[in-house]
Amino acid sequence: MKRFRLFAAGLTLGLSAGAVSLAASATPAVAAAPATVAQHAAGEVALPAAPAICGINSGFFTAWHSGCTNPWKLACTEGNSGTIPFDPVSTSNGCSTRVWIYQEAVRAGYNLCLNPDSSTGALDKAYTYVWISGNAEDC
């Protein structure tokens, strides 16, 4: 009898957790704004336009530290690339071409394509490498 009560209690608890999980995943979809940044990895996902948290420096890709301090800049020369020396909280593209940022220096892992004259807003992943493209089209 005691085993049956424990089994019933466990079953009830499991079903309750499943109901909470289903309720949490039933969030309605929201239409995204036009993308200024495209994310590529397991699939292609367009991120909505993001406000420039720290500003856009014309002629440079800029990675920003917390509080928009000590920016790291890379000149907008096609083929220019570099390792970002810290985990940026935000980046901006002041170039007239696309800029790609990557999780790894070998252009691997998650990557983001930044449209010309755009900003990522707050980043949710650590990006460590940047490459300046020669393509002036939006991502």
Give me the secondary-structure topology.
Layout: H1 2-25, E1 35-40, E2 44-48, E3 60-64, E4 72-75, E5 81-83, E6 90-93, E7 99-104, E8 108-114, E9 118-122, E10 129-132
Antiparallel strand pairs: 1-2, 1-8, 3-4, 3-6, 5-10, 6-9, 7-8, 7-10
Question: How would you describe the overall organization of this protein?
Answer:
The chain is an alpha+beta fold and 139 residues long. It has one domain: Gamma-B Crystallin, domain 1, CATH 2.60.20. The protein has a six-stranded antiparallel beta sheet, with no helix packed on it. A four-stranded antiparallel beta sheet has the order 4-3-6-9, with no helix packed on it. A hairpin with a 7-residue loop joins strand 3 and strand 4. The longest helix has 24 residues. The N and C termini lie far apart (64 Å).
CATH architecture identity = Sandwich
Identify the strand order in the major beta sheet: 2-1-8-7-10-5
Number of domains: 1
Stretches where pLDDT falls below 50 for ≥5 residues? 1-49
Distance between the termini: 64 Å
**Would you count the extended β strands for me?**
10
Mean pLDDT: 73
